[in-house]
Structures are given as structure tokens and as C-alpha cells.
Automatic annotation (TrEMBL):
UniProtKB keywords: Flavoprotein, FMN, Monooxygenase, Oxidoreductase
Annotated GO MF terms: nitronate monooxygenase activity
Job of this protein: Nitronate monooxygenase that uses molecular oxygen to catalyze the oxidative denitrification of alkyl nitronates. Acts on propionate 3-nitronate (P3N), the presumed physiological substrate. Probably functions in the detoxification of P3N, a metabolic poison produced by plants and fungi as a defense mechanism.
UniProt-recorded name of the protein: Probable nitronate monooxygenase
Cell membrane in keyword set: no
CDD domains in alphabetical order: NPD_like
Entry superkingdom: Bacteria
PANTHER family: 2-NITROPROPANE DIOXYGENASE
Keyword Metal-binding: no
Gene3D superfamilies: Aldolase class I
Matching Pfam families: NMO
Organism this protein belongs to: Candidatus Anaerobutyricum stercoripullorum
Length: 355
């Protein structure tokens, strides 16, 4: 295959891969730095990176701010010249505050989803930090690019298309997840690309597009590129690596998972998500409410009085390997994992520049 690279700001992405952001504590500085060192784009999750700070439950905002800097510093030490950024959910409270802290930390790019990042350009203006919305449908691409164009007279520096086989929170209505086929979603990708081309022409520069969701091997990469995208986003494959920041028990949950263990769950954020079935999901299915350790007021779509469980607590349990109490987010093909490898092995397995 012809060597295809793209740029983010003034930096060349030598390997056309963006590592997906995984929180809480799954993709921090260790994983992001290792990915960036290999020439791809490493992404730190901004979902409570400070969960290990001693004052996290007393002062979560400041703990997270400190961790944004420390995890960025860790990643930069691993990959001094690499491309390193953050993924941040629009659904988070204090979104603007965290974005501005990410800018101060020296990120190259901010990727934002779990809602449309309508005012992200205002928070990054004149910073030189690239901005990349995550979209899943032609409609969402039209909405965000039109809004940025009209209100901020700018467009995306990169766009992530996240398909229905992705892990974690999904940008679809539950009924869409069952109706999309591989072929019909390919057509959706082409429609999104047509929207992007309109803004490329208006602003006179390339907007790289990467495709995410169930991409696990060379054939998937070749197929993605045949649709006209510029690269791929991969997350699940990096969980079962030595460099992943999660506990080994979390990694091994992927290796033990069977296809039938992976299901669509209702997240307290108000969006469907994909996860590995476990004891927590049994409790939720039985209408057993799991009280929060302490409400951190972290997601503006969550009602502490009625939520079946605290998503922050559940994701922290996951990162710590406390599997029965965890929300084990994963991609649609997580059951294919069969060993703990390295970041380099994962990237090499895609054979990016081979036929």
C-alpha cells in the first residue's frame, strides 16, 4: 500500500494511527508515550487522570489538573518529539477548565466526544493546539462543522469517525446499533467524508479523517483506507499491552472474554456503551442500586439521586483491576485478545505500508 501520512499542526504523523483515549486510568502517560514513540498519535484520557492522587475525593478538580500535567510530562519523556494529546468528554462538568489546563500542559491535540464539542475553539484559540471532534453520523458531522464555521470562523484540524463497533460510550441511539451493517456504515463514512471535503475547500487545507470502531488488523486498515480516510483510531488492541496503564487484571479480563460476554450497556452518562459482562452488570440488570463512594459531580447528564451506579467509581474499579465492581468498557472485538504484548507489536501487526 502506498505510504500515506498526514500532519497535525506542524508535526507529521509518521504512522497513520491515533490511539483512542480510554478512561479512567487506562490510557495515561505510559501508553500514550509508547504509542507516540512509534510514530503514531498517543492520547491520554482526561477522564479523572488524578484518581490516584491522595486528595482525589476531597479535591477532584485540582487532583485532575495536577495529573494532566504529570501524565503529559511522563508521555513527553518517553516520546520527546512525538505527537501527544488528550481525549476529553463533552459530558464532563468543568469541561472548559480541563481543556484550558490541557492547553497549558502542552498537548499537541485535543480529541473530544461524548457529545458535540461546540465551544472547543473558544477554549483553544491562539494556542496552537489542534482540535478534533468525534462524530458518528453524517448529521453530527454537519452540525459541529457548520457551528464552528459560523460561530468561530474555523474548522477541525482532524476529525474522528467513531463507528458502532467502538468501545466505551457510543454516539448512536440504541436502535441504530442494531440496524447498521458493515456495508451501510461504510456508506455513512462516505457521507461524512463528503461533508468534510466541503470545509476543506472553504478553508483551503486538508482535514485528516481517521476511522475508529472494531479495527483490529491489517485487513481492517486496508478496508478503512479504501473508504477514503487518512488513518485509523485503535484503542482495544492497546489495552492488552505491557505499556497500558491499567491493572493486569483488567487486561486479562479482555483475554478471558468470549464473544457472548461483550454487550451494550446503559451508562449513567445517558449514552449506550460497550462493555464486558460482569457482576456489576448483573446488579444493574436486577435493579440493584450501587451507591457512590462520594458524588464528584463529574458528569452533567448524571442524576446522583437516581443513577444505578457511579460511573467514576466503576471505571476506577476497572483501572485498579477490581473486576466485580467495575465497568469494563471494551471494543466490539475485544474477545480476540489472546496475550499481553507490546505497543510496538500491535502497531507492527497492522503492516501499514505493505500491500
Amino acid at each position: 500500500m502506498e505510504r500515506k501520512t498526514f500532519t497535525i499542526g506542524k508535526k507529521e504523523v509518521k504512522v497513520p494511527l491515533l490511539q483512542g483515549g480510554m478512561g479512567v486510568g487506562i490510557s495515561l502517560g505510559g501508553l500514550a508515550g509508547a504509542v507516540a514513540k512509534e510514530g503514531a498519535v498517543g492520547i491520554i484520557s482526561a477522564a479523572h487522570p488524578g484518581y490516584r492522587e491522595p486528595d482525589f475525593y476531597q479535591n477532584p478538580i485540582e487532583a485532575n489538573k495536577r495529573a494532566i500535567h504529570s501524565e503529559m510530562k511522563k508521555a513527553r519523556a518517553i516520546a520527546p518529539d512525538g505527537i501527544i494529546g488528550f481525549n476529553i468528554m463533552v459530558a464532563m462538568n468543568h469541561y472548559e477548565e480541563y481543556v484550558r489546563e490541557i492547553v497549558k500542559a502542552g498537548a499537541d491535540i485535543i480529541v473530544s466526544g461524548a457529545g458535540l464539542p461546540a465551544d472547543l475553539p473558544a477554549y483553544t484559540k491562539d494556542s496552537g493546539v489542534a482540535i478534533a471532534p468525534i462524530v458518528s453520523t453524517e448529521k453530527s458531522a454537519k452540525v459541529i462543522l457548520k457551528y464552528w464555521d459560523r460561530k468561530y470562523k474555523c474548522t477541525a484540524d482532524l476529525l474522528v469517525i467513531e463507528g458502532p463497533w467502538a468501545g466505551g460510550h457510543l454516539g448512536f441511539h440504541p436502535d441504530q446499533l442494531s440496524t447498521f451493517t458493515r456495508e451501510s456504515y461504510d456508506e455513512e463514512v462516505r457521507k461524512i467524508l463528503a461533508v468534510v471535503r466541503k470545509y476543506e475547500e472553504k478553508y483551503g487545507h486538508k482535514i485528516p479523517v481517521v476511522l475508529a470502531g472494531g479495527i483490529r488488523n491489517h485487513d481492517d486498515y486496508v478496508h478503512a483506507m479504501s473508504l477514503g480516510v487518512d488513518g485509523i483510531q485503535v484503542a482495544t488492541r492497546f489495552v492488552t499491552t505491557v505499556e497500558c496503564d491499567a491493572d493486569e487484571r483488567y487486561k486479562n479480563a479482555y483475554i478471558r472474554a468470549n464473544k457472548e460476554d461483550i454487550e451494550i450497556v446503559k451508562s449513567p452518562v445517558g449514552m449506550p456503551g460497550r462493555a464486558i459482562h460482569n457482576a456489576l452488570m448483573d446488579k444493574v440488570a436486577s435493579s440493584v442500586r450501587v451507591p457512590a463512594v462520594r458524588c464528584l459531580n463529574c458528569i452533567h447528564t448524571c442524576n446522583p439521586a437516581t443513577t444505578p451506579y457511579c460511573i467514576t467509581d466503576a471505571l476506577i474499579h476497572a483501572a485498579k483491576g477490581e473486576l466485580d465492581e467495575a465497568l469494563l468498557f471494551c471494543g466490539g472485538m475485544a474477545y480476540e485478545a489472546d496475550h499481553i504484548g507490546t505497543v510496538k507489536e500491535v502497531i507492527d501487526s497492522f503492516r501499514f505500508f505493505e500491500d
